[in-house]
Amino acid sequence: MRTEKLYIKGQWKDSAAGDYFDVLNPADGSLVGKMAAAGKEEVLEAIAAADQAFEEWSNLPAQVRSGYMKKWHELLQEKEEIIARTLTAEQGKPLEEALGEVRSGTSYVEWYAEEAKRVYGETIPASSSPKRIMVLRQPVGVTAAITPWNFPASMVARKISPAIAAGCPVILKPAEKTPFSAVEIIKLAHEAGIPKGVIALLAGSAELIGDTLLEDRRVRKITFTGSTDVGKALMKQSADTVKRVSLELGGHAPYIVFDDADLDKAAEELMGVKIKNCGQTCVSANRLYVQESVEKELVQKLSEAFSKIKIGNGFDKDTQMGPLIDGDAYRKVQEHVEDALSKGAKLVTGGEGFHKGDHDQAGYYYKPTILVDVTADMKIMKEETFGPVLPIQRFTTEEEAIQLANNSRYGLASYVFTESLNRGIRVSEKLEFGIVGLNDGSPGTAQAPFGGFKESGLEREGGHFGIESFLEVKYVSISMK
Length: 481
Ligand code: ADP
Hints:
The protein is α/β, with parallel strands linked by helices. It has two domains: 2-249 and 456-478, Aldehyde Dehydrogenase, Chain A, domain 1 (3-Layer(aba) Sandwich), CATH 3.40.605; 253-445, 3-Layer(aba) Sandwich (Aldehyde Dehydrogenase, Chain A, domain 2), CATH 3.40.309. It contains 14 helices and 25 strands. The chain has helices at 40-59, 62-78, 80-91, 95-115, 154-166, 179-191, 206-215, 228-239, 263-275, 295-308, 327-342, 398-406, 421-430, 463-468; strands at 2-4, 6-8, 11-13, 20-24, 31-36, 122-124, 131-139, 142-146, 170-173, 199-201, 219-225, 244-248, 253-257, 285-291, 346-349, 353-355, 364-366, 369-372, 389-395, 410-411, 413-417, 435-438, 453-454, 457-458, 471-479. The strands form seven sheets. The chain has a seven-stranded mixed sheet with strand order 15-18-19-14-13-21-22, with helices on both faces. Strands 10-9-8-11-12-24 form a six-stranded mixed sheet, sandwiched between helices. A three-stranded mixed sheet has the order 1-5-4, covered by helices on one side. A hairpin with a 2-residue loop joins strand 2 (6-8) and strand 3. The radius of gyration is 23 Å and the shape is globular. The model has no long low-confidence stretch (mean pLDDT 98). The structure holds adenosine-5'-diphosphate. Adenosine-5'-diphosphate is lined by residues 146-149, 173, 175-176, 206-207, 210, 226-227, 230, 233. Adenosine-5'-diphosphate binds next to helix 7 and helix 8.
């Protein structure tokens, strides 16, 4: 059993008040370890250290910041197995998938180590000849980063790396269910020599840490991934000190399959985007719309594939899908399935789960499930299920598919399958989503601007777009003699 500490001002520290919380393995409820919980004093200490580190860190040549990040990247690559094992133990996903997540997170560190060197300014022609206008881009300042449990490694790397590349110190609060992946990643940032105060890790009460960070004027930016409700609350709290806000919130991704699609490909890509992480992903396919003439064939293919999925402990070699994160997640999945069935949906496969171990908060598994004859009034078609359930609704025309897909308060990811180039482009342009996977079930990558329309969020993560939300724009108007 492990016991991990907080990371403040370049040092690993026990909780001053002696508070620790349990981290459970969602596979069976066993205790993975204990994590130190920060009190208000420790949050304030981390803010003061970050504030102090800001000037020096942001004034370093970008090349030097980049050098630290490259070292960090190297260590992350070397230790990927250790991080992945930690991730599986506290989050439950299969080890191979955990390794994929660690590599994805690591790729952001590499990308932003490079991008640090490309924070370009501009000059603008002035309207009178003795003047010059010079535009600078400067780091926004101390940043609070709050991350979720579904991608406890990649979210940490994805948030910290653009911030520190831009010159902003970061105070990280990982999710209480999964703090150890963050601990492993930050141990390596320490080993890479990233100066004290540039990164802090605070675990513990979300409200206490969140409120203290958000009230403080020295914190100039918050970057958050998590539920839409918490994101909105943080945005409201940020208003008092007009903090810059980046939000990556919920999604309700439509997966549209036209009659001219490559159905084998559509089915195969769907397995990745639905079964991965047990469906607990903001870009997971939440609702499948299929053109009526190919419904039967597609459902047949998916049903065969779904019923073969091996469910179990993420450390078992043949496991393809792990547990849900906890009992609440399980009950939500159950509720969505029951609601759909009570309103006329039909079960094709799955529709039940099981419990392992004797802990009432962990050890919950749900079988990959397909529902057909689904209608728009069912909960599952409006709210994020965050589980391995695929509701399928048929459509007749292209216009109808677009309208059904766009009829959501969310706008993160969407997927379109068609072999027609014209249709693919036409539909992609009309979808009100930040991400469109056109015949592609895994569009996420470090160089692309990940983020959502509507209530799915603000700003983008990834690519050159991702660093911009950590930069202020300043112009200097110069009057010459
Ligand atoms: P999920 O439903 O995925 O658990 P949450 O939005 O509840 O999503 O959690 C995402 C992150 O936000 C976690 O790190 C959690 O601790 C944090 N969080 C939850 N509530 C608050 C809050 N009131 N203030 C700050 N952070 C919060």
